[in-house]
Design a protein that fits this description.
Length: 482
Amino acid sequence: MDLLLLILSILVSCLFFKIWKLIDSKKDKDCYILDYQCHKPSDDRMVSTHFSGEIIHRNKNLGLEEYKFLLKAIVSSGIGEQTYAPRLVFDGREERPTLQDGILEMEEFYLDTIGKLLERQQISPKEVDILVVNVSMLTSMPSLPSRIINHYKMREDIKVFNLTGMGCSASLISVDIVKNIFKSYPNKLALVATSESLSPNWYSGNNRSMILANCLFRSGGAAILLTNKRSLRKKAMFKLKCLVRTHHGAREESYNCCIQSEDKQGRVGFYLGKNLPKAATRALVDNLKVIAPKILPVTELLRFMLKLFIKKIKMRQNPSKGSMNLPPGTPIKAGINFKTGVEHFCIHTGGKAVIDGIQHSLDLTDYDIEPARMTLYRFGNTSASSLWYVLAYMEAKKRLKRGDRVFMISFGAGFKCNSCVWEVLRDLTTGESKENVWNHCINDYPPKSISNPFTKMYGWLQDEDPETFKIPETFKIPDEYM
């Protein structure tokens, strides 16, 4: 009898030990953001209205129709006068980029962000276990991760991932890679570096669908420090709740709407097709279908299902009333209240049309999209790193409080839509991040008006005749824009 009790007690102890070990191991699989740092280029790289006019004027491949198109595109872009461009544009060499231009642009980014991030957290580069770098349109040998490892003298056994060609959604793809590594490797520290190299990709031709990228994309970047160490949980800022990736690369229309290519003269540029909004809408809808059940309460899901059921019954009874005759490209409302599951919306600054479309689809207020709209105005579309500028705006405005959830949505070439939800682990309302790129100007945002002076400055182009048009040799930019 005593022997039986002993065996039974051993078996029960083993069972409890395995259960405890299982629960304990899951704790090491969580993904936390320990800290992040956005890149603010130096002021000598700032693109003013005056300088934008200079860039356009010295492109001899443009005519009056292209000038009118660019004027309309810039005025409606939502971008202000304090964004940043690569240095070769200021040197007037955008038609003759070199590989070194792209590398130096990236060096300026990662020396600033990674250095500040590690110093602020008092972490040695040798403590970093995983390095993920995503820069879509620059490939060099040695690779950018190798250059980072060489500069910071990181460990020989560091796990390295180099992502290229993934577009504006690459940032969350990098986070997804780290999240999956954390499932197998406990007690690790990961560094994600996300940016885009504009130097070798500035388009100097006259294809409207390609020159549009010059109006939207600007220099920037971010470094994010992630961990699954329980010992660092109290220092962490955010915890990853879920992440969903949607890829429509199998659809020809989606695949071709956003692609790097050459024009008829062989000039390399980034093509943005007219069907881009349609492709983005499709990808967003499919992505929301997957992530909604993961982040929304059951009551909201049931309400939506009931509303959908009633709508279908009405459509059967009266098909003419149920049909929607919307103009092509009109965003469709999701019909579900995402504010029941999240408090903040961190939207990729792909352009004014992208932000407006998401606002309409998710039925968001101006307050909800203010961080994205202000980021577009102040920094432009910084590609994959734009999400972190939006997040930094929320932090600088002291909006993020413990328990809040942040919904990130990004789009990228391919065509992809990636989204995730972060939980705020502690109040981020004390202005603790002294290196926040918004700190020097946050009190000026939002401004009373986000219009730019291009119309006032170049509006006379609209009245010009293509047959007789010639820029006057005596034309001078008004002193107020110098």
